[in-house]
């Protein structure tokens, strides 16, 4: 049986990969390049809310 820490890690890993795939998909569909400066700016705005 898996420990609760292992289960938690797997959930976090799956969620992170899912978000990465969604981001890559959106960039491809919208024909955009990834811009680190835009991403960090958006992350700062998101963390304020």
Helices and strands in order, then pairings?
Layout: H1 4-29, H2 36-48
Protein name: IS110 family transposase
Organism: Lactobacillus crispatus
Give an overview of the whole structure.
With 49 residues, the protein is mostly helical. It has one domain. It contains two helices and no strands. It has helices spanning 4-29, 36-48. The longest helix is centred in the middle third of the chain and has 26 residues, at 4-29. It starts with a helix and ends with a helix. The model has no long low-confidence stretch (mean pLDDT 85).
Provide a concise account of the structure shown.
The protein has one domain.
Mean pLDDT: 85
Count structural domains.
1
Shape: flat
- What summary fits the major beta sheet? none
- Portion in beta strands: under 5%
Q: How many distinct beta strands?
A: 0
Number of helices: 2
Given helix and strand content, the structural type is: mainly alpha
* Integer-rounded radius of gyration: 15 Å
Spans of at least 5 consecutive residues whose pLDDT stays below 50 are none
CA distance, first residue to last residue: 39 Å
* SSE series: HH
Helix content: over 70%
Task: List the keywords.
mainly alpha, 2 helices, 80% helix, IS110 family transposase
């Amino acid at each position: 049986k898996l420990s609760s820490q292992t289960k938690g890690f797997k959930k976090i890993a799956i969620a992170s990969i899912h978000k990465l795939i969604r981001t890559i998909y959106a960039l491809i569909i919208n024909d955009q390049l990834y811009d680190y400066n835009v991403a960090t700016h958006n992350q700062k705005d998101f963390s304020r809310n």
